[in-house]
């Protein structure tokens, strides 16, 4: 099996794992940090806004089962693409929405998907999620991996911070974008 990777930042990485983890063709979803200037940052450093990193997930997938375009669609449905400075209750540059692309093919797919979303007029505001080149990705500490399974109570509190309501309001009927 030849695998590929995708990296997405959409607010708290705890909340970005489950939607991908449960998809066929996904080999792994790792919470971590990317886009900053410090090697091997810690959660505490990233949360303190001292490293320039964004919380993200790195997804290893089998493109014969799930396409990168499908992953981008799943990504949109987890985020508020009109909020450049965080997601839901998580505020700051370390929670900004970014699609990190690892080459021209991923860039073309991500940009076309973003343009389609903007043209759909699903949102009254512009789509501000950025599309940036992949940078070094550093896995987060063990306690942050598969957080939704290992800490269901805290995870549920995070989801109650507005993400679930937003998803229900905007993404329940995905055909609006087609």
Automatic annotation (TrEMBL):
GO terms for molecular function: L-methionine:thioredoxin-disulfide S-oxidoreductase activity; peptide-methionine (S)-S-oxide reductase activity. It holds the Pfam family PMSR. It comes from the Bacteria. Keywords: Oxidoreductase. The active site is at 12. It is an enzyme of class 1 (oxidoreductase). Residues 5-153 form the Peptide methionine sulphoxide reductase MsrA domain. Its EC number is 1.8.4.11. It catalyses: [thioredoxin]-disulfide + L-methionine + H2O = L-methionine (S)-S-oxide + [thioredoxin]-dithiol; L-methionyl-[protein] + [thioredoxin]-disulfide + H2O = L-methionyl-(S)-S-oxide-[protein] + [thioredoxin]-dithiol. Has an important function as a repair enzyme for proteins that have been inactivated by oxidation. Catalyzes the reversible oxidation-reduction of methionine sulfoxide in proteins to methionine. PANTHER family: PEPTIDE METHIONINE SULFOXIDE REDUCTASE, PEPTIDE METHIONINE SULFOXIDE REDUCTASE MSRA 2. Belongs to the MsrA Met sulfoxide reductase family. This is Peptide methionine sulfoxide reductase MsrA. It comes from Lactiplantibacillus fabifermentans T30PCM01.
